[in-house]
Amino acid sequence: MAKEENIIVGLDVGTTKICAIVGEQTSKGIDIIGIGVAPSTGMRKGVVVNIDSTVKSIRKAVEEAELMAGAEINSVFAGIAGSHIKGFNSHGIIAVKERVVRGPDIQRVIDAAKAVAIPNDRKIIHVLPQEFIVDDQDGIKDPLGMNGVRLEARVHIVTGAVTSAENIVRCANQAGLTVHDIILEPLAASESVLTPEEKELGVVLIDIGGGTTDIAIFINGSIKHTAVLPIAGNHITNDIAVGIRTPVEEAEKVKVKYGCALDSMIGKEEQIEVPSVGGRPPRSLSRKILVEIIGPRVEEILTMAEKEIIKSGYEKLCASGAVITGGSAMLPGLIEMAEQLFNMPTRRGVPLNVGGLKDIVNNPMYATGVGLVVYGTKAREKELFEVEGKNIFSKVMSRMKEWIKEFFF
Which of 132, 198, 346, 388 makes the best surface tag, with the fewest CB within 10 Å? Predict the structure, then answer.
């Protein structure tokens, strides 16, 4: 049985599924020792719309993960997503008092960078340092101990709706869990599916989930742009349900079993069996019709992602190309279509560099859950969270002072 102090749990509260991933920190790295998945019925587009249903789903996923891991789960690192998430870049400047950059100077310049007007109904979730500038010398990752009279910081600030974040924490608490921290889901996914070389060279991460498509762009090892699109896998499923007249649950099964984004990848004479509505007998249908329904919606999702990448202004700097993850990334033909649209190398993102049940988690649908475990492990190593205490937002604010240690380890 795993020791409790070595256990880190990631809780991915998604639109279509709740996923609890249990990781154990070992001398060789992180071993995945437990996985629990439950259908998500209380979420819509990444936001809690039914507390009771979400709590039940969390409990079911956690119980399943506990059983597999042989360990009791009391605390988690929870992911947050949804169309309410907004990210923007900011810049701060201070004078260095003693001509040598000290820890308090770094804290002051980050405070200056995040001193922006934010509505009362929103909360800062992350302040992610991109680079520091000491007396016009830019590209500095950690300025501690450097000589200079002026210190500047460029940061990426991620904000979210206060109520959405509070509801995720409340659901976890009612399920008997303490939330150590809330993490932006594409940021978590990047921890598990991207390599340091890709982040340094420039890469676009696209996480296509059930309710939302999350985008994060990394250049020179730091995050430059984040965005959330309110369109994802559920829209494909709904199109199928309407197009072939079958219940939504059956449409999801048809999508997983027979779905494809490109008609060039299927046989012209292929037939599939489709369940009907209202107890009517199943029907035989050409698979080509299914692909003609799926293809345009996938193209729309990818085109919206492409427009967001162009809008960010970093499309020419992403030399590593694009990495697509999330449950919908498993759809055959999606990666090939993305490569054609983006005109850049594109691969499917699966969790990397973990042991234990790696054969099971070797799937894009587990990218965020595994990423939360990796994030939590790094946070634990840096001692960035308090084990005791209930107010998650006081923790979020207190950990702002430690961003340098966390993101430039």
Answer: 388
User: Could you tell me if 129 and 220 are in contact, meaning their C-beta atoms sit under 8 angstroms apart?
Assistant: no
pLDDT in tens, 191-241: 999 999 999 999 999 999 988 999 999 999 999 999 999 999 999 999 999
Domain that holds residue 90: 86-159
Q: Distance between CA 116 and CA 194 in Å, rounded?
A: 30
CA distance 393 to 277: 47
**Which of 219, 177, 250 lies closest to 312, judged by CA?**
219
Q: Kindly give the residue spans of alpha helices, DSSP state H, lying in 223-366.
A: 233-243, 248-258, 287-312, 334-342, 358-361
Q: SS3 for 28?
A: coil
Rounded Cα distance between 80 and 82, Å, is 7
Does 95 share its domain with 52?
no
pTM (two decimals): 0.88
Nearest to 24 by CA among 371, 386, 354: 354
